[in-house]
Design goal:
It is a single chain. By secondary structure, this protein is an alpha+beta fold. It has one domain. A hairpin with a 4-residue loop joins strand 1 and strand 2. About 5% of the residues have low confidence.
Length: 186
């Protein structure tokens, strides 16, 4: 038998029934308010983690990111031919070259030199070909954006590049590091 109850929640929150515990939980309405860690995403989706499997750091980061994206995209079905797809984008800079307005999300040391990892950016789809010119760089400049971690909105892609930027970096680059030549500093 189902019963309807009325619950008053603070602004930005909603009641959700947790079938595992049998309790009603007050959670943020926005999915980004609920998914702050890999564990949050795993729990949200009900995924189990097999800690006995040993992968490289890049593969571990990639698997965690996919779980996080599954949760943040809330079962959004992407279409290869229509719609806009957004991708989180991270960059890194030598400490003396970090732009003043950059959102630094971490620091790492590589081959003895300190770098800043910058997040908070997103790109949509791809721009390339003879018909594409980006006028800020002149008539002869064309480029292509290629994304790997599809997000259903720019807001989610920017969130991923900031909140999970280190995982994005690790998924792309960790397999190239040997021994102590790379380390996260914070």
């Amino acid at each position: 038998m189902k019963k309807t109850i009325e619950i008053e929640c603070p602004d930005g929150y909603k009641p959700i029934y947790n079938a595992k515990t049998g309790n009603v939980e007050i959670v943020p309405e926005n999915i980004m308010g609920r998914i702050k860690t890999y564990e949050d995403a795993r729990d949200y989706l009900g995924y189990l983690f097999n800690s006995e499997i040993h992968y490289t750091e890049s593969v571990k980061a990639l698997a965690k990111l996919q779980t996080i994206l599954d949760a943040l995209n809330e079962k959004h079905k992407f279409n290869l031919l229509t719609g806009t797809v957004w991708y989180p984008w991270v960059r890194f800079f030598r400490m003396k070259s970090v732009p003043k307005d950059a959102e630094v999300i971490g620091h790492f040391r590589y081959q003895g030199e300190k770098f800043a990892l910058v997040g908070g950016d997103a790109h949509d789809g791809g721009d390339a070909g003879l018909g594409f010119f980006f006028s800020d760089y002149g008539v002869g400049y064309a480029y292509s954006d290629v994304g790997m971690f599809a997000c259903k909105s720019e807001e989610i892609a920017k969130y991923v590049s900031t909140q999970f930027g280190k995982l994005v970096f690790d998924a792309c680059f960790a397999r190239h590091f040997k021994g102590e030549e790379f380390e996260w500093l914070d």
